[in-house]
Design brief:
Chain lengths: 275, 275
Amino acid sequence: MQLQPTKYSIVNEDFLPATEASVKITDLALQRGYGIFDFFKILNGEIKFLEDHLDRFYNSAEQMHLPVDQTRDELKAMLFELMKKNDLPESGIKITLTGGYTPDGYSIAKPNMIITQQALTLNKGDIAPGIKLITHSHQRQLAHVKTLDYLMAIWLQPLIKEKGADDVLYFSHGIIRECPRANFFIVTQNNEVITTATNILKGVVRKQLLAIKDSGFNLTERDITLEDLRLCKEAFITSSTKNILPVIAIDGKAIGNAVAGDVSTQLAAKLKELL
Amino acid sequence: MQLQPTKYSIVNEDFLPATEASVKITDLALQRGYGIFDFFKILNGEIKFLEDHLDRFYNSAEQMHLPVDQTRDELKAMLFELMKKNDLPESGIKITLTGGYTPDGYSIAKPNMIITQQALTLNKGDIAPGIKLITHSHQRQLAHVKTLDYLMAIWLQPLIKEKGADDVLYFSHGIIRECPRANFFIVTQNNEVITTATNILKGVVRKQLLAIKDSGFNLTERDITLEDLRLCKEAFITSSTKNILPVIAIDGKAIGNAVAGDVSTQLAAKLKELL
């Protein structure tokens, strides 16, 4: 999945050739990792769940003391103009808001907004082959905010590869949290579908899934323990790019029959109706 | 303390006018907060504790899977050339190493190295008036590495101001850790000088101070509890820019007589001899 920016990117108000777009080295994201972002999925030339993502973007910015110059309508107009210029009907747009050009290497200044668009082959709702996870004890700081902090996730990549896995599942004090870029669900032996509830970033696909009224299953949010994980019959993750993606093994131990489970498959079909 | 880069900065091999120096928006520090740095103090045109800082820089890079193109001697030559061009006898040099221009927004690429120099008025070892701290429950991730992650520290700035304090002291599970940019010491009622030992970044001034043989005090590294904090008679922090800086109040409660204590003052004098 190459995410190279394509044709045009936006830095603040300027539409720039994507390969030339740059920021000065005094930016607080570069100096101190300080900033937030959101990711918008585009299918058939249309942004999916646009309002949900804008809600989260503005909320992340506010939580992090980063004022956004643009009103919601102005920001939408910029996204639509970028989409027109780039003409990528299946793609992702990332809006990053940084702490700006800091005068002292530490203080927040007027934020810089960076918008990039990348062609993507997106999952349209079909169930995909499963992935393998390792667990790692870690609690994301400011977990409810979509910050730029992926230090632990990227640092763990060599270990994930070494273990023959695809991604990492964070837990903290015996309670499951999330994957770095996805929410986590289990299906119990009683067909109860549970997703983690606390100290996580609540994803948009997670929200859409929980809102489905006629799924035929009992979907609930509550803490999932490491013991729940050991006993579950299915597990899956959700994200904007992956929709529902089965988890077939965790720490080298198979989940169920190590294939996409029945409940996961039925929920994926329900979610597909929404897309 | 303005840290604006002065005259020249270095981006990879290039000496650039500091105000123009920039990196492309695909840099992994900007995208995901992934990178490390170190800070070198220059007094009378000479880098203090150069080898200690280089040790830590190369160690941070290795821990974070970031190869450094330059040998130690090559890197020193670059620093010396920058110092010559900028001619700032009292200043700080920051070397930042990022995850590079990531092809997919997530993977480490060939790192970008950014070197900036700023004029600074540095503490030369004299004891300074004390500061006030608030405590906050937080454990830095990958604490032994000097990463770019200052998310919590910068996020807390409005709260620190609101409380009339100057900085924050992190604790985790009842154990004191560190300030965002400084190590922490207490002096007990028995004149024992203790600094926190675990899950911290071990600073160069901290190391120098612990190495002083004839300080006249018993300096030890061990866990400091919140209870130890309540009972101590002096407290101070150490950092490259601050040397020894007394802490006169924590969470609104005075430490000792809320002035620089005798032990802190004597240790500051000993440290001054080293500089």
